[in-house]
Amino acid sequence: MGDSSVHYSGALHWPHFLWKEASASSYRDYQMNNEFEQNGYLLHRRLIDSDTVSAWAALYASLADPNRVPEFNPVAINDDRMQPLLSLITRHPAILDAVEEVFGPNIALYNQRFVVKDAKSRDAVFLHQDTPYHIGWPRKLSAFVALSESKMENGGLYLRRATHIWGYLGDAGELNPEVLGPNQWLNAIDMHPGDVLLMHSACWHGSYAHTEGPDRVLTDIIYQPADDPSGKKLMRGTWKTNDHIQDEQRANMFIRSRTSRLKELQEQLDKQ
Ligand SMILES: O=C(O)CCC(=O)C(=O)O
What we know:
It contains seven helices and twelve strands. The chain is α+β, with helices and mostly antiparallel strands and about 270 residues long.
């Protein structure tokens, strides 16, 4: 993908002047918010204790369907039988605490699913951002909770630092890393069970092909501030909007769109 160097994730060290004036109690929030805002992501090592994550992984394995028919996005798994497990993970206090450090006390859920590299989805996922696929406001983040090892060999994620700053790019699809500057370096994220990666939805990211090792199992839980009408469920604090977009409204938002036009054109081609 035109990336010449790979930087592995690690703790960021802030210049002393940035934090020495912060009081002891505010230092942690201050640092974490800045790290997320500046980089577009934040990795929490071992946020979930090993007993809990082992239980989640065992539940996932018991529910996983080896004969699943991959959807348009082959890594995405969010069928009905996964929903109770996803809902359990989604409300874990340590994850909500981490999200609170970014978005503040009023947090809503936008979407929950697993993203998995299993026998049905071994391919790489190209460099993209998620914002064009969402409705509502762009201030959203994905919480990738590792239920398995996740590294380059088994299809791990990589991110391009500080790309979220460019916001929504006006179209959806494969992004060109050649346009990025030296501060937008590639970070291959090596995760262990219980690690949680928070990623701004506008951050450019992709994943490697699974070539060896265990199936890679991550959640992709999208949280957002509770003032966004596209939120599905309040997770913490109070709603800060009286307006809530209903599923039916969401499904019928467009009379005609780029997507509906593409479908029409495809149908015409299929008839020929
Ligand atoms: O799970 C992966 O490997 C990448 C998933 C992803 O980025 C997406 O579906 O938007």
